[in-house]
Task: inverse folding
């Protein structure tokens, strides 16, 4: 407790600096007056703020969960990696946002884990794993990934990928209050979308909502690209509007309302993409804010069947980037 208290004082100074930076970046406005999503490239010279709810523990989860519970908090496992621009923006723009900072500080304590790291993590049953082994066991496919644990240390929400400040705040608020971050639907629509139709190509299912600014932005910034459209042409594409809440016929023959299906999948960000193979089995998903490099890589990952030989998408991404660089071209992850 004493060690944690000293660290909180030091981290608060870092937080103040981060807020000053954020005031000129996160809240910049577009011409239409709406807040802009501004992703910043990694600046290794910038000091990364560590907020009061970052836990400097001994990576012994049973003790961490129990001690956090005594303080009225729950544990969040945060998987990151060096050079990840989405992680960088999460910790420099999202976490220090005053409302996010206050909400997290009131409810959670965060443990940072490197998906390539070798520190030993002791699980609640006494099993000892390196950080990278734990990441593989939990099927962490890309960074950042946040796994929210309940009071017993059992995962209750998984957040794969980056969310801008407002979306992250909405997600955590819903989690604290026991509410879904997905839009509410009025009744069930008459349309039936069949995911189980036999096809000679994979299926890309996009989950959207009416009046979804992030969906509109993704469509304009990523889906409108010629290279993205070329990759999508290799898929049978289906769009599911959760606000209209159509019925969805799943590959196993069962029929369910789209909103219920999305909640059962654990979707917490829109637009979300579910990639199925030609047999109707989910092989990958993207339910986070991403730019073209990561989305197009996901399309290639499934369509090429690369997931069969490389189950870790992050390693596949590294290989893709290396090949592009070897060909003499640069890699802009935030393009």
Result:
């Amino acid at each position: 407790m004493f060690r944690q208290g000293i660290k909180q004082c030091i981290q608060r100074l870092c937080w103040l600096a981060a807020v000053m930076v954020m005031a000129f970046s996160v809240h910049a406005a577009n011409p239409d007056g709406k807040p802009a999503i501004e992703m910043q490239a990694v600046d290794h010279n910038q000091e990364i703020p560590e907020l009061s709810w970052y836990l400097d523990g001994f990576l012994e989860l049973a003790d961490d969960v129990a001690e956090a519970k005594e303080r009225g908090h729950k544990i969040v496992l945060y998987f990151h990696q060096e050079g990840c621009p989405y992680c960088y923006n999460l910790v420099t723009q999202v976490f220090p946002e005053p409302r996010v900072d206050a909400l997290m500080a009131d409810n959670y304590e965060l443990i940072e884990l490197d998906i390539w790291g070798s520190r030993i993590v002791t699980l609640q049953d006494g099993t000892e794993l390196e950080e990278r082994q734990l990441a593989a066991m939990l099927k962490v496919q890309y960074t950042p990934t946040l796994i929210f644990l309940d009071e017993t240390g059992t995962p209750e929400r998984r957040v794969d990928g980056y969310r801008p400040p407002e979306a992250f705040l909405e997600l955590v608020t819903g989690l604290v209050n026991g509410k879904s971050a997905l839009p509410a639907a009025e009744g069930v629509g008459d349309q039936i979308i069949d995911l189980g139709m036999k096809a000679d190509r994979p299926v890309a299912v996009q989950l959207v909502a009416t009046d979804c600014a992030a969906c509109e932005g993704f469509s304009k910034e990523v889906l409108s690209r010629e290279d993205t459209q070329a990759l999508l042409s290799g898929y049978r594409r289906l769009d599911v509007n959760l606000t209209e809440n159509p019925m969805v016929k799943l590959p196993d023959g069962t029929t369910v309302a789209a909103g219920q299906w999305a909640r059962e999948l654990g979707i917490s960000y829109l637009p979300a993409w579910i990639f199925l193979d030609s047999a109707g089995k989910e092989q990958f998903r993207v339910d986070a804010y991403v730019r073209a490099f990561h989305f197009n890589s996901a399309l290639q990952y499934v369509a090429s069947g690369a997931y069969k030989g490389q189950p870790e998408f992050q390693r596949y991404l590294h290989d893709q980037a290396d090949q592009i660089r070897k060909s003499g071209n640069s890699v802009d992850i935030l393009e």
